[in-house]
Design brief:
Blueprint (H helix, E strand, L loop, with lengths): L1 H16 L7 E3 L3 H6 L1 H17 L6 H29 L2 H22 L6 H13 L4 E4 L1
Antiparallel strand pairs: 1-2
Helix pairs in contact: 1-4, 1-5, 3-6, 4-5
């Protein structure tokens, strides 16, 4: 039982640490982008990401929330189904614990590898910052 608790706790902590957004703006190849070049545009994108963070927007909040939500949902569904299975065999408590650990693991992994959009406020601040620098954002990937 202690091992199961440690595993679930480790998974939840790992899920909370997933905060880095892999989404990035796609820049339209306008005259400004062509004049500054790829390296300079990457630096400007990074600066605009920092502006968004300083303004209080978070690029990775969506991913952390997704992972945490999937983990909690998986744990709840797993505990319920494990309790039912355990009740049939005469050990509802152990069944619920095993089900919760299994469900949390599945939920964590599905949340970790699913794609979630970045925080809309973050996207808006980055887009505005880039527009002020002469770029046109075609979308996010």
């Amino acid at each position: 039982m202690q091992t199961i608790r440690r595993c679930v706790t480790a998974l939840l902590l790992l899920g909370a640490s997933v905060g880095c957004s892999s989404h990035r703006p796609i820049l339209y190849p306008n005259a400004h982008l062509q004049s500054v070049g790829e390296e300079s545009s990457k630096e400007d994108v990074q600066r605009c990401r920092e502006v968004a963070k300083e303004a209080g927007a978070s690029g990775g909040a969506g991913k952390t929330g997704t992972v945490a939500g999937h983990t909690a949902t998986g744990a709840g569904v797993g505990a319920a189904s494990g309790a039912v299975g355990g009740a049939i065999t005469g050990s509802a408590g152990i069944g619920a614990a095993v089900g919760a650990a299994t469900g949390a693991t599945f939920g964590f992994l599905s949340g970790l590898f699913s794609s979630s959009p970045p925080d809309p406020a973050y996207v808006n601040v980055v887009n505005q910052c880039l527009a002020e620098r002469g770029y046109q954002v075609a979308g996010w990937k």
